[in-house]
Fold these 3 entries.
Entry 1:
Amino acid sequence: MRKRIIYSICGVVVAGLVLFGIYAWHPEIAPVTPPAKDQFPAATVAHGKILAAAGYCSTCHTTPGGQEYAGNYQMNTDFGTIYSSNITPDPETGIGNWSETAFIRAMRTGVSRDGHHLLPAFPFEHFNKLTDADIKAIYAYIMSSVPAVKQQKKPTVSHSR
Ligand code: HEC
């Protein structure tokens, strides 16, 4: 009897670990060659520009006086000082080699292209109401109209409390 209880507890624990593993693990989405700037329809780009403004993307992704969308805007949170990402189309330090699929996943679930979870300072939960078409328009706007800037993102500085 006792053995059975122990076995079933172990079963639940193992099942929980497996489920957590599935939840926490996200595959990398392969990098792509940066899309050609002229491949996006002008109307889509214009729509994306409006949505990017409405989503305050540049507010959080630009340092005061810095290059637009190049990131490193500093945010002080309870768990440390974090910096926003470079979301210009630079393939090395920005999102130039992100496919549309990788961009949609980040906007919907807060997972970066390489599979790591982004901190909730990136308010992806506020972007839930955006349709796929809306997110694709933002992607089109960034990839076609935002100048690529090479700027490495600063690492998060954790508070030791
Ligand atoms: C409240 C501030 C804030 C707003 C508004 C915001 N972001 Fe961000 N965003 C961040 C922060 C901070 C990060 C980095 C999080 C991390 O490193 O864990 C980030 C990360 C990202 C990433 C992931 C980049 C990478 O290399 O992993 C993308 C893509 C992104 N933001 C796009 C956008 C877009 C598009 C908008 C507008 C619709 C937007 N963000 C609005 C703060 C913001």
Entry 2:
Amino acid sequence: MRGIGFRPPAEPGILTKINGNQPAIGTDRSMTQPSAASRAMIERLIAFDTTSRDSNLALIDFVRDYLSRHGIASEIVPSEDGRKANLFATVGGKGGEAPGVILSGHTDVVPVDGQPWDTEPFTVVERDGLIYGRGTSDMKSFVAVCLALVPDMVKARPRQPIHLAFSYDEEVGCLGVRRLIDVLVKRGLKAQACIVGEPTEMRVVVGHKGKKSWRCTVHGHESHSALTHLGVNAVEAAAETVAKLKSMARHFRDNGPYDETYEPPYTSVHTGVIRGGTQLNIVPLRCEFDFEFRHLPGDDPDALFAEIKEFTERELVPEMRAKQPKTGFEWRELSHIPGLNTSEDDPVVTLGKALTGANATGKVPFGTEAGLFQQVGLPTIVCGPGSIEQAHKPNEFIALDQVAQCEAMLRRLIQRMAAS
Ligand SMILES: [Zn+2]
């Protein structure tokens, strides 16, 4: 495997800003090998091609059958079109109302299209302490370790329940888990903690930025390009709006507000897609572009959106409408992932530290489902095996040591939930 294009593992923690001292985890050699059960389950889950655009039902069926063999009933919460599903299951907690712990993971993965993989992405390959395959870090290994430990959970008969919450469509805007959370809220599910197992290299993550995105469609008016004075150029109006977004981005970069625990430490603004016009000698009728704000907890994305909308209404629309009354801007929200902002002294953080042996917490730049759980009052942290540096890339991998650390964390959790 070496020498044929594999990148060596990146330095850990480049994208995870940590508060406090680093824990000395991963140095205990006895901890570095995961169980055969975890390895086999990772291999099994990776083999399901659950790219977000496709169904995840084969994987969900497999998990439901597996759980039922261990006497655990699953609740399936399907997507609107029935092509995909969330799965929710509870181990223990019988006869009591003690709030338990939710272990949350998504089952979908990003596409491998056009990526130069050196191995078959849906067949795991283990080399030099690393397991390669799409979704090994993001985030089927966490889901697999949870499942591999189900027999231990069942045997421990935890008085405080352990809930498994597996979602779909996380990679396309955290869509699936919203339906699951709705069901849990209606039922009045209480939990002392929710652990979202996205890859943090087993660090306890208490915060990430929120993200909100929109599509703007500019409606202009066509004319021959020799007669620009008769047309309303949709591409130019879009370009002026994108330039305004860029000036907002510079303003945040240069003036803050700043929170140095994030990378970058300010709210970022970005336009990622633009389409418009048909050919050079036609004044374009239509142009659309997609943009997003990745905001600090203190910045309100709706206020930023209002600012850009107000700019177009003040600076661009009057001139456009003076020529053609049917021109203007149309806005559509694409996605909203709330930020995660868990207090350092929340008991969920104490639990996360106890389970991992860490004495530090961190924040990450990427969005997760954690903000959605927190939004409905569930105390939430992000903590899972693997590194986000490997996520979404060709030759994605996870270190065996990370899998072993995840196993150790969940074993401590099982003990805790069984005790008292
Ligand atoms: Zn993920």
Entry 3:
Amino acid sequence: MKILILNGSAHRNGSVSKMLKEIRNNIPESNSVEEINVYDLHFAPCTGCMKCRSTGTCCMQHDDAHNFAEKIKDADALVIGSPTYWGNMNGYLKMLFDRIVPVLMGESKKGLPIPMQKGKKAAIAISCTTPFPFNIIAGQTTKNKRALKEILKYSGYKTVGTMVMPGTKMHNDISDRLGKKAKKIAKRISKN
Ligand SMILES: Cc1cc2nc3c(=O)[nH]c(=O)nc-3n(C[C@H](O)[C@H](O)[C@H](O)COP(=O)(O)O)c2cc1C
């Protein structure tokens, strides 16, 4: 299995990076794993021209979003990590997803979505400063997760697990609970 990890955090030793590392460390070595941090990519924002909906490719000047789109096509599974920003995924990460729509989703003549990555697996790792249970009550991680799942669902991915770390102002270490979760996700994502 070729597993692509997309890290949407600017903090190389932050909560999201730690969760992704824990998942990665539990993926059997027989799999190939590549991790890309969105902050290492240079790309322009989507201009909303909608040409990709009929051509199937992004017509903007070639940049890292095109390169990343090729990696999505090539990978069998995707793990996305994102901090919660304003009850959503990180903005730069969202910008990347906006740029790679044609590899994720096609559109019928009537505008209905056609999943382009059907059958592939995905997992999510998210964090926020709001402590438990307010991350749920106030919908912080819940909305972030929903937004990521929206993309994954319409792209055809099956989400096999979600890791959530709330309360990161107080601590951002991997608890026993999160460690177990990471193991489960690693097992499920690497299973053929
Ligand atoms: C621009 C911005 C917006 C944020 N919005 C929220 C939010 O809506 N809810 C929340 O609980 N934390 C919010 N946070 C805090 C981050 O989610 C939190 O610090 C997260 O754990 C960072 O993870 P990282 O260090 O792995 O990147 C925000 C942080 C930033 C910089």
